């Protein structure tokens, strides 16, 4: 066995070339040049025979004469492109020198290059080598993309399984510490209670992380199914606001929501959209300094068929240059929560995926003075 | 809820049996039997005829759906509540179609589990 490591990027020996020309002499000349490089050849003396030979030989490259009796080179090339599409081997036309119209039409018919007659061995080999290498590169790229997406799918399956199996024990740890905390098995000292609360907090944040990982795995594997029904957006936001305000009170932060005059009814997955709203509100509270005001508004425009809601905070805003990380998995920015809250870096990525599944958009803009605004735009008649 | 019957708690994970068992005790259930898989559950069911079965879905030896079918074959009127970990709609639908009375998600807070259990018991044993 020869070593698979060569100084050339690719070993082109053994690559298959189909030579098509009605002039046997041209075929002989080309065959002589090509065999010296170790290519494997087949030939045909007409367009019709070329099509048949292609189907049997599966060449990596086709050298195709333009002027032939029966269907000409251009027609043969179009036929090959029609039959094999993106998979079709590159076609190089053989033309007489100075036939620039032929060259243009040949490239239009799907050819990648042309070889002028009379042939110069070095030129023929150089052009063929470069097109074969291109083809191998694109084959390799295709294979890599396939391998990567298979690896990505495997990652999602693994993530889903791992997260799934971690969830039960974590839920038990959390639940059992609640029993201890509530004194179900006897009174605790202050120190014991402190430790139990720490275990409870840690298991809760692990559970949150695992749930978010599961969400990502489910969404990424294309298994996000929306349970669509008409819902009142005002009511949905009001529920989330009142829940968030209970948490926000710890930081003396208030979420203010002024419902619009008419409540927009949207077709959406209520649990998923609630997740988006909860996430945006808790982020706004998380990154605003204590004592801030978070403002939620709804803008419905039935005439253009969209409805949007926005959440404005009073935090530091999105640092320049970190904007593109914002909606990506694990895209944690340099800004820190102001009350020691946790962040997994998955929340906004999940929001974006849910909003996009609703055929909506989610954007973030810094406000002129301070803070930033997250805006979700949804189709109003989905 | 004022439930005086016997409950059979089936789950292969001991920590889940402990956790759900504590919730049941807090709800006032006097007698709780435990099984670690479907086969054990069937044996105990035959001997003790519990009033209520809490049944895990994913278990070794015999899974929850298979166990549910067999329980229903022994006693079509037995009350079975499934214990699931994920909102796996298909499994839940299958279980409900096979005659399960309700389902409980083990990863929800204990108050929620207690509420669902209490409601199911009230609904199933109201007339007794």
What can you see in these coordinates?
The complex is a heterodimer of chains A (382) and B (128). With 382 residues, chain A is α/β, with parallel strands linked by helices. Chain A has three domains: 16-119, 3-Layer(aba) Sandwich (Rossmann fold), CATH 3.40.50; 148-220; 228-379, Heat Shock Protein 90. Helix content of chain A is 47%, strand content 18%. Chain A contains nine helices and twelve strands. Chain A has helices spanning 24-35, 47-57, 73-84, 100-108, 121-181, 190-220, 233-248, 270-287, 347-357, and strands at 16-20, 40-44, 61-65, 91-96, 113-117, 228-232, 254-257, 265-269, 293-301, 306-312, 361-366, 372-379. In chain A, α3 links the parallel β3 and β4 (91-96). The longest helix of chain A is centred in the middle third of the chain and has 61 residues, at 121-181. Chain A is elongated. Chain A starts with 15 loop residues before the first strand and ends with a strand. The relative contact order of chain A is 0.07. With 128 residues, chain B is of the alpha/beta class. In chain B, 48% of the residues lie in helices and 20% in strands. Chain B has five helices and five strands. In chain B, α1 (14-27) packs across α5 (110-125). The longest helix of chain B is centred in the C-terminal third of the chain and has 16 residues, at 110-125. Chain B is globular and about 30 Å long. The relative contact order of chain B is 0.18.
């Amino acid at each position: 066995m020869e070593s698979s490591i060569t100084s050339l990027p690719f070993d082109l020996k053994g690559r298959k070339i189909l030579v098509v020309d009605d002039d046997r002499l041209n075929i002989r000349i080309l065959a002589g040049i090509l065999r010296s490089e170790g290519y494997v050849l087949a030939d045909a003396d007409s367009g019709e025979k070329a099509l048949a030979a292609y189907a049997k030989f599966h060449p990596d490259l086709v050298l195709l004469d333009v002027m032939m009796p029966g269907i000409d080179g251009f027609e043969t090339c179009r036929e090959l492109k029609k039959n094999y599409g993106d998979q079709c081997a590159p076609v190089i036309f053989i033309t007489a020198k100075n036939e620039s119209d032929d060259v243009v039409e040949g490239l239009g018919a799907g050819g990648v290059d042309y070889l002028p007659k009379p042939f110069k061995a070095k030129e023929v080999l150089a052009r063929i080598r470069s097109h074969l290498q291109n083809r191998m590169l694109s084959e390799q790229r295709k294979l890599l993309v396939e391998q990567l997406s298979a690896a990505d799918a495997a990652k999602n399956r693994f993530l889903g399984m791992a997260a799934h199996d971690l969830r039960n024990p974590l839920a038990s740890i959390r639940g059992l510490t609640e029993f201890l905390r509530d004194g179900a098995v006897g009174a605790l000292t202050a120190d014991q209670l402190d430790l139990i609360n720490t275990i409870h907090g840690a298991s809760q944040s692990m559970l949150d992380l695992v749930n978010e990982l599961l969400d990502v795995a489910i969404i990424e594997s294309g298994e996000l199914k929306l349970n669509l029904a008409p819902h009142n957006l005002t009511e949905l936001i009001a529920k989330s606001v009142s829940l968030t305000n209970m948490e926000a009170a710890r930081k003396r932060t208030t979420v203010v929501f002024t419902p619009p005059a008419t409540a927009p009814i949207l077709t959406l997955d209520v649990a998923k959209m609630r997740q988006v709203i909860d996430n945006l509100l808790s982020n706004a509270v998380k990154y605003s300094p204590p004592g801030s005001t978070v403002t939620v508004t709804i803008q419905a425009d039935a005439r253009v068929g969209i409805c949007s809601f926005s959440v404005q905070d009073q935090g530091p805003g999105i640092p320049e240059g970190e904007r593109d990380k914002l909606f990506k998995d694990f895209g944690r920015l340099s800004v820190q929560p102001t009350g020691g809250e946790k962040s997994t870096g998955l929340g906004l990525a999940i929001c974006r995926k849910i909003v996009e599944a609703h055929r909506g958009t989610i954007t973030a803009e810094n406000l002129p003075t301070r803070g930033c605004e997250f805006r979700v735009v949804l189709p109003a008649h989905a | 809820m004022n439930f005086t019957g016997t409950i059979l708690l089936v789950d292969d994970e001991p920590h889940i049996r402990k956790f759900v068992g504590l919730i049941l005790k807090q709800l006032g259930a006097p007698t709780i039997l435990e099984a670690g898989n479907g086969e054990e559950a069937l044996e105990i069911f035959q001997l003790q005829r519990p009033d209520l079965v809490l049944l895990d879905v994913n278990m070794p030896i015999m899974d929850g759906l298979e166990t549910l079918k067999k329980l229903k074959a022994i006693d079509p009127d037995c009350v079975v509540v499934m214990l699931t970990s994920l909102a796996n709609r298909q499994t839940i639908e299958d279980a409900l179609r096979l005659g399960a009375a309700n389902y409980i998600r083990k990863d929800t807070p204990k108050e929620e589990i207690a509420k669902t259990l209490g409601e199911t018991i009230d609904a199933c044993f109201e007339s007794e």
